[in-house]
């Protein structure tokens, strides 16, 4: 299997140009939506994703120096959820060099990111996915050494457009922290809909993005998509793209939902390594670094 990607990094000048000129080809976009492609490997969709001149939506890794102050320890080392993920990712993956990650719900590419340390200090590459336009622009400015795409992840096996709710910026002087709760509009509670704002976003199966990048092996898949995680994982072709570790947030909906969610992910070939109330670490049962005998 191919770990990582075969796409070549472009020159730095091209990367910077694309940060500003990478606008969608609306004719191709509307045609894809009209046709309702149901095949994640459809050549029209993959071409649209890959080719910048054709309206492609995948940005190349930056060749510029990082625009971050540290690797998150200074700001978030005592934040409970960050510590939970960091503990398991460090234990199981920090010795690995040149792995590949997917981080969905990447915000600005810095706040609470558990992939940045792997990228900076273990030479990992990856894919950062963030649908919120203002956060995505901040993400690009961080000069991450990973591919980046401004989409929401689809809960269905095809491309579609939906409304995305931008949560109010409650955290003073830190818009990224305030943006944490942003999500697809149909996941927003009625009381919350009185605040915030809406934008239209495209949702795409994450498998299409990975196939467009020629990625068939993902070491770490971080899924923080505020309510869409069930559909995202249930429709993911784990038989086609190998994933070793899942780090997933799912809002607490009671014990029955928790059991059902764990059962669904287990059916994909994973075991539950550990969990908090709303956060889960799953490991592929035949992963080389760990074989789970029984789930907790």
TrEMBL record:
One Pfam match: Methyltransf_21
Record domain Methyltransferase FkbM: where: 104-266
InterPro entries documented for this protein: EGF_Rcpt_Signaling_Reg, FkbM_mtfrase, SAM-dependent_MTases_sf
Compositional bias segments (type: Polar residues): 1-13
Stretches the record annotates as Disordered: 1-24
Domain of life where this protein originates: Eukaryota
GO biological process, alphabetically ordered: endoplasmic reticulum to Golgi vesicle-mediated transport; endosomal transport
Gene Ontology cellular component terms for the protein in this record: endoplasmic reticulum membrane; Golgi apparatus; late endosome membrane; plasma membrane
PANTHER family: PROTEIN STAR
Protein name (Swiss-Prot/TrEMBL): Methyltransferase FkbM domain-containing protein
